[in-house]
Amino acid sequence: MNQPLRQFLRISGSATIDGVTIFTDLDLTLKPRSWTCLLGASGVGKSTVLRLFAGLAEGVCFTGDLRVPDRVAMMAQQDLLMPWLSVLDNVLLGARLRGARPDTDLAHDRLVQVGLAGHADKRPSALSGGQRQRVALARTLMEDRAVVLLDEPFSALDAMTRAHMQDLTAKLLRGRTVLLVTHDPNEAARLGETIAIMTPTGLIDITAPTTPIPRDLHAADVLRTQATLFDHLRRPA
Ligand SMILES: Nc1ncnc2c1ncn2[C@@H]1O[C@H](COP(=O)(O)OP(=O)(O)OP(=O)(O)O)[C@@H](O)[C@H]1O
């Protein structure tokens, strides 16, 4: 990963959609070259934060300080696969949209890594939800970006595949600035170097383990952090 990180990411302020407040007084600065995990109740505005960082927040009225990098890779909650393209062509879509030379060998490698060797020529409609999510992950992992935004990227996967994809993603995105939105306390405890819970009135910072990521599923510091997150998340807003 040779790209220098010219800018850091910061969001500090409030957002509304159609005059309805989404969040107020949010203050989040991402540590460069590190994983930040963002949790919080459904509807609190986590995806909106990602969309603001990605410059894709059409319809969102934001007031405050928003510092975003020139280019990011983003994996949205919906897989956004093109139904008329093959799995391989979906993985190559970023390069095609940029008019760059598609790296077919790398795309095949990514498909193997996400466990979809042999599915390259299929249409997305022939895949399960978890398989489609892994195509979207493979597509995101094709992008050579210093900043990567991931919105619940493993949510449709079974437990074992999820752990495997977490390990793969941590390995391939080492050295990048990653913002991962997740509902899974174990995932945040395994992958977060900074962990925060978003609430309607701001962030709650959670002390993350200091061991390197991806952490072992059963490591004591992971289980401790997971328990702390559960305790915070089940408190009434
Ligand atoms: N296009 C839109 N028009 C109106 N309201 C919207 C729109 N998009 C999102 N919202 C509202 O903004 C709020 C925040 O949505 P957002 O998707 O950011 O939440 P979230 O924390 O990511 O939720 P989840 O965990 O369920 O994905 C929600 O209350 C949602 O209803």
CATH class of the largest domain: Alpha Beta
Structural class: alpha/beta
In terms of per-residue confidence, which ranges show pLDDT below 50 for 5 or more consecutive residues? 1-6
Ligand types: adenosine-5'-triphosphate
Relative helix content: 25-40%
Question: What is the averaged pLDDT score?
Answer: 92
Order of helices and strands: EEEHEEHHHHEHEHEEH
What integer value in Å does the Rg equal?
18 Å
CATH superfamily of the largest domain: P-loop containing nucleotide triphosphate hydrolases
Second rung of CATH, namely the architecture of the largest domain: 3-Layer(aba) Sandwich
Estimated share of beta-strand residues: 15-25%
Per the CATH scheme, the topology name of the largest domain is Rossmann fold
What can you see in these coordinates?
It is a single chain. The chain has two domains: about 1-70 and about 145-235, P-loop containing nucleotide triphosphate hydrolases (Rossmann fold), CATH 3.40.50; about 85-145. The longest helix has 14 residues, at about 160-170. The chain has eight helices and nine strands. It is an alpha/beta fold and about 240 residues long. Helix 4 crosses helix 5 and helix 7 (about 185-190) packs across helix 8. A six-stranded mixed beta sheet has the order 5-6-7-3-8-9, with helices on both faces. Strands 2-1-4 form a three-stranded antiparallel beta sheet, with helices on one face. Adenosine-5'-triphosphate binds near residues 17, 40, 48 and 77. Belongs to the ABC transporter superfamily. Keywords: ATP-binding, Hydrolase, Nucleotide-binding, Transport. This is Aliphatic sulfonates import ATP-binding protein SsuB. Pfam families: ABC_tran.
